[in-house]
Write a structure and sequence with these properties.
The chain has 209 residues and is an alpha/beta fold. Helices cover 58% and strands 9% of the residues. The protein contains nine helices and five strands; from the N terminus they run βαβαβααβααβααα. A five-stranded parallel sheet has the order 2-1-3-4-5, sandwiched between helices. Helix 4 packs across helix 6. The protein is globular and about 50 Å long.
Length: 209
């Protein structure tokens, strides 16, 4: 196994599994770094990408960039606010820009990780605990989030496939295991979810080494 330096980008979900990914990759002689904070949605990731490449100089990039960040999804669960995703056309531009940028820098050693859905019942409960609105409103928010997450995940899969970029479909894997893998807020990962996500991400990374 070559001695490669991996850059991991993504929102607060990525922060939850980064340490575990680092430990697993070290067993194969790979090193891993990532920004200390969330890299946000697709637009924020696009805006920061050049600087992160210059800072970390990776051999391989693994990134997650959705239409909204898990940080934002947690916020609306507890405040009752609406969350407007990055516009579909803008998201397409962001993902193509990021894919092409990372391919130029790392060749075929690029991996994308899709967003998992929110757990509707736990999202509704978190919404109610914080007095953010009615259960019906919380359910509407959760279902709206999940519709957009699936739509944008499918778009990213298609676009990055055209660039021959590996896509790790974390969203599809976690969806039927949401009870075990999503935390009490319905958005972030449980310990079981962290382990599953980490192993999926590592599998994607090793698949392009």
């Amino acid at each position: 196994m070559p001695d490669l330096h991996v850059l991991l980008l993504g929102d607060s979900l990525r922060l939850s599994y980064q340490a575990r990914v680092k430990t697993l990759l070290a067993q194969d002689g790979l090193t891993l770094d990532g920004p200390a904070g969330s890299t946000g949605n697709s637009r924020a990731c696009r805006e920061g990408a050049e600087a992160w490449l210059n800072t970390y100089r990776p051999d391989l990039v693994c990134f997650a960039a959705g239409p909204h960040a898990a940080d934002d999804a947690h916020l609306i669960a507890t405040t009752g606010g609406r969350l407007e995703p990055v516009d579909l056309a803008d998201y397409e531009g962001d993902i193509l820009h990021l894919g092409e940028l990372f391919r130029r820098h790392c060749g075929r050693q690029v991996v994308f990780v899709t967003m998992p859905p929110v757990h509707v019942e736990r999202f509704v409960a978190a919404h109610a605990r914080h007095g953010a609105g009615t259960a019906a409103a919380g359910r509407d928010l959760a279902q709206s989030l999940n519709r957009s997450i699936k739509q944008y995940n499918d778009l990213a899969f298609t676009l990055l496939g055209q660039l021959n970029i590996m896509v790790t479909r974390l969203g599809d894997l976690l969806s039927p295991r949401a009870d075990d893998c999503l935390a009490d807020d319905g958005v972030h990962l449980s310990p079981a979810g962290v382990e599953l996500a980490a192993r999926m991400v590592v599998g994607g990374i090793l698949g392009v080494v």
